[in-house]
Amino acid sequence: MPDTLYDKLWDEHLVQNDDRNESLIYIDRHYLHEVTSPQAFEGLRHKQLKPWRLDANVATPDHNVPTDRGNQFEAESIKDEVSKIQVVELDKNCKNFGIHQFDITSNKQGIVHVMGPELGYTLPGMTIVCGDSHTSTHGAFGCLAMGIGTSEVEHVLATQCLKITKLKNMQVNFSGQLQTGVTSKDIVLHLIKLIGTAGGTGHAIEFSGSYTASASMESRMTICNMAIEAGAKVGLIGVDSTTIDYVKKHSNLSNSMFDEASKYWKTLHSDTDAIFDKTINIDVSKIKPQVTWGTSPEMTIDFDAEIPSQDSIAEENLENLLLAKAYMGLDESQTLQDLSFDKIFIGSCTNSRIEDLRDAANAVKGKKISKDITEAIVVPGSGMVKAQAEQEGLDKIFIDAGFLWRDPGCSMCLGMNPDQLKPYERCASTSNRNFEGRQGNLGRTHLMSPVMAALTAINGKITDPS
Amino acid sequence: MTNSIISGIVATFDRDNIDTDQIIPTEYLKSIKKFGFGDFLFDGWRYLDEGRLDMTSEDRSKNYDFILNKEPFANAQILLTRDNFGCGSSREHAVWALRDFGFKAVIASSFGDIFYNNCFKNSVLPIKLTKEEISHLFKIADSSPVRFKIDLVKKVVNYDHDSSFSFDVKESLLDRIIHNLDDVDITLKNKNQIEAYELSRRRHRPWLFDYSN
Q1: Do B207 and A123 count as a contact with CB atoms less than 8 A apart?
Q2: Set of chain A residues whose Cβ sits within 8 Å of the Cβ of B122
């Protein structure tokens, strides 16, 4: 029987099927960060257990770290006492249990989903987990990658396995070529608008089609990253020469080992006649830049479209619409173009890779940010992205335009570190969640691509990129 | 010890897509403990001021329009809501906050996948019913405070003396709640199988074990 990529990865990692339809799946790579791991390490200590396999684990602090660290910064320098405890705790746990960490002083530290692939810790065909829902990012490498809770972090540390049930298969075919000014972020936001934030629940989504095949690894990671915003904890893409070229550049496997591995990696795609429980076909050439207007990633529209009104919406969705509009401070007659922005955030595990920074820099080169913008920050996803961008002179372009150039971290994607919105501030953000309070208490988030966020910085308003 | 009956007051949240950032905002994820999150449950809706980890409910300015600040819902044990509850972030703190507040069960038409799994690790039962059944329960629970009785063995929600809806849930997951089982203990009974699998993997996919940091 022909298999999907997800089926193949599932079968490959199956340790045991129990009689009640729960399976033990072996985990090849476990990423850890400071927020969802302390209670898991505490659990190990309580049970007097050691990690099953140390070299499967890699850790880095990202959620709590300030992004204006500069040189000579260490965990003890964090001003917020509670944040500091969490970062110091990760240092202690990694040291005590012997887990490899790129700590806050490392020039390789970064957002775990940006750092992992570029250091070669993510290899095709792996099962990858992390106590973070955006672990789906690594599916771009033909991996079975998913976010897990802290109890499962403890379980993986202790047993190298996950006890889970198999998901259904969904296929999303992206065909065609993008219009100018449109990016992978717009494609995935468009998908979420179409199927909703529960559209992929219970499924692993495989992205395929001619657009996906032509996309860079960075773009593929952006798409898989936001599979979770479509409800799917697993997003994945078959391995092709783009994947293998990237891994060749980033892994430190010996040549002979790489050659042996790539023979296997080339089999990591769905069989031609594989059957999916659901298939969605999308022509990407018709997609315009997307911007969210509300408090859920499905509340997305074309940048120049009308915001849904009371009259245009089904009655069962009215309550959600009114709550979102009230929170976002939107009047009935407003369009996105009418809105004035206060802050700009270019960063997050969705959009802080080198390609994203190049796109944004290209849009602001030789220009100045609008005087209405009180703060515009660019936060590279990792030490390596930062160094690469500086080598290309992107930092200078941003600084000349009036942006702040920061150190790697999750930053304003979520209000755990000093980068936050104040109540009622409106932000053009390249992150992944526009939930109430996500970027700071009562802050108002509009998700969009790095190009659109950069243009919003220049004009103070949403503008046509073409 | 077995937990086979959940009986309690029902609090209603008539809203789709309640994400885990709403269940517990990011600020409180800075705790390194596994307990003590109850005071921060639905923080953004429950209070008028901004909180910190070192504050308790007593220190805060409450939003008395919010259901959990009204009697008898401050003692609610069952939460009734709509679609896609617990979507978004994987934070298990969301379940810890529901548990610490006193919730034993959440009834919704669907759940975020990661949240759903997290519930069973913490003795909070997520119950999926159809949208029609949910609407029916909303009609009953919205008119005046009610108690539901959930029988975990029979897998039914009794919402009236003689009326109930049955629900479906994997037996093995349900067992974790009924018998208070720990996943790590269960899995380590298969230690030999895991070792055998790993050995074979090391042989067939050696590059996965060859990485030097």
Answers
A1: yes
A2: 151
Number of CB pairs, chain A paired with chain B, less than 8 A apart: 200
Q: What does residue A284 show for φ and ψ, rounded to 5 degrees?
A: -75, -15
Q: B209 — contact with chain A (CB < 8 Å)?
A: yes
Is the pLDDT reported for residue A450 higher than 50? Answer: yes
Contact criterion met (CB < 8 Å) for B187 and A298 = no
Beta pairing partners, A447: A429
| A234-236 and B147-151 beta bridge pairing | unpaired
Give this prediction's pTM: 0.97
SS3 of residue A314 by DSSP: coil
Tell me whether residues B91 and A121 touch, CB distance under 8 A.
no
d(CA B194, CA A190): 41
Burial of B163 per CB tally in 10 Å (0-12, 13-18, 19+) = exposed
Contacts of B172 in chain A (CB under 8 A): 18, 20-22
Kindly report, residue by residue over A204-251, the tens digit of the pLDDT.
999 999 999 999 999 999 999 999 999 999 999 999 999 999 999 999
- Which two structure tokens, joined as six digits, stand for A197? 């934030």
H or E stretch at A186? helix A184-195
Q: How many residues does chain A have?
A: 466
Asked whether residue A414 carries a pLDDT value surpassing 70, the answer given is yes
* Beta strands, E only, chain B: 5-13, 78-81, 105-108, 125-128, 147-151, 156-158, 164-166
Q: Do A123 and B122 touch (CB under 8 A)?
A: no
Tell me which residue in B15, B26, B88 faces A133 most closely, judged by beta carbons. Answer: B88
Query: Could you give the CA distance from residue A243 to residue A117 in angstroms, rounded to a whole number?
Result: 11
Residues A345/A427, Cβ–Cβ less than 8 Å: yes
Report the helix count and the strand count for chain B, using DSSP H and E.
8, 7
Look at the block and give the residue holding tokens 């996943």: B183
| Tokens read off for A295 | 């408090």
Residues 6+ positions from B16 with CB-CB distance below 8 Å: A317, A320, B82, B83, B84
Residue A357 to residue A222: CA distance in whole angstroms: 13
Beta strands in A187-243 (DSSP E): 203-208, 234-236
Q: Is B69 on the interface with A (CB under 8 A)?
A: no
B92 is written with which tokens?
Answer: 């298990």
Chain B neighbors of A164, CB-CB under 8 A: 117
Q: How far is B100 from B96, CA to CA, in rounded Å? A: 6
Q: Point out the residue among A28, A197, A416 whose CB comes nearest to the CB of B87.
A: A197
Taking contacts as CB-CB distances below 8 angstroms, the residues of chain B near A254 are: 210
Helix (H), strand (E), coil (C) string for A243-256: HHHHHHHHCCCCHH
Report the alpha-carbon distance of residue A234 to residue A89 in Å, rounded: 29
Q: Do A15 and B190 touch (CB under 8 A)?
A: yes
Do the chains contact at A258 and B207, CB–CB below 8 Å?
yes
H helices, E strands: number in chain A: 15, 19
CA dist., res. B133 & res. A314, Å (int): 20
Q: What is the pLDDT of residues B151-178, one digit of tens each?
A: 999 999 999 988 999 999 999 999 999 9
Number of C-beta neighbours around residue A167 at 10 A: 21
Say what the ipTM of the complex is.
Answer: 0.95
Query: CB–CB of A4/A12 below 8 Å?
Result: no
Q: Which of B12, B15, B26 to mutate to test the interface with A (most CBs of A within 10 A)?
A: B26
pLDDT score, position A21: 73
pLDDT bracket for residue A364 (50, 70, 90): very high
Give me the phi and psi of A195, to 5 degrees please. Answer: -100, -10
User: Strand, coil or helix: what is A45?
Assistant: helix
Residues sharing a CB contact under 8 Å with residue A45, sequence separation 6 or more, in sequence order: none
